[in-house]
Each structure stands twice: as structure tokens, then as C-alpha cells.
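User: I'm putting together a teaching handout on how sequence relates to shape, and I'd like one worked example. Could you take Flagellar protein FliL from Ancylobacter koreensis, show the sequence you're using, and then write out its predicted structure as C-alpha cells right after it?

Assistant: Happy to. First the sequence, then the C-alpha cells directly below it.
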Amino acid sequence: MAKTSVPTGNTKGEAKAPGLILPLAVLTLLAGATGGGVGIQLASTVAKSVTEQVKAKPAEPETPPMRYSSKDTLMEPLKPIVANLAAPSQTFVRIEASIIYRNGALPNAQIAAAEIRDDFMGYLRTLSLSQIEGPSGLLHLREDLNERAKLRTQGHVDELVLETLVVQ
């Protein structure tokens, strides 16, 4: 028998395979280096802008300024107010509050505080529990009581401060 050689593959194709690996490896390294360079540049730009913003930002005060900090402003505490609500009638509300006014605006602050307290007690007896529930209910109650205090004193009371509110 005569030995015949059978071609196992294309010799030209085998020669091209090592020729493609080198350019692909170079392109991969070039792409990695370009991506790394762009990433470093973006990171330094972001870091630079953040440090500029931090330096440009003024230092925040530790405590906010007081709204009524002058010596001309006085505060008169009201005696605790306890009243039952209109609905449900067995529900009671207890409020402790103070009024803030300018010195000399009220001729007798204790009498004004007693009148405001009496007015609040009458108003609380007209409310239902659903009207004072939640944050918006508390806000509306505070605004209504503030308005009543200002009306009772012809605008001499600057603000009403609710100290406690207990519903039982």
C-alpha cells in the first residue's frame, strides 16, 4: 500500500490566525488604556467641582436665628386649657400654649391671656376629632387659634405658641 497524505487543513488559514491575534491584542490594550484615561479625567473633574462647591458654600450657622429674640418681645403663658370635643363628646383635649407680644402692646397681659383662654375653650368645643387629626389638622388648629388670639387682642398678639396638645 502506498501512503497518501491527506490534507488536514488549510495551511493558509493557519498562517492567518496568528496574524489576527496580534492586532486584536493591540486594539484591546489601546481600548483599555483609552477607557482608563477617560475615567481618570472624569473622576478628577468631578472631584475638582465638588471641592470648589464645598469651598464656595458658606458655613451654615449651628443654630437658626431666633424669630423673636429682641428684648422688646414678651411671652405670657396661658393656663392649661381642657375641653371636650363636639364629636365624639367623651374625647377631651388639653392644650398648653403661650402668647408672644411686644412690650407695651397689651395693657394687661394676664387679662388678655384669660380672655384668649376662654375663647379657645369655646372654639375647641365646636371641633370634631377628625378636624385635628394628622399634621394638617394640627396646622389648621394652630392657625385658627393664632387668628382667634389676634382677633381677641385687636392684632397685638404676634403669635401663639402651642407647647403641648394632648387628646384623650
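A couple of points you could highlight for students: The chain has two domains: 15-59, 73-167. The longest strand covers residues 92-102.
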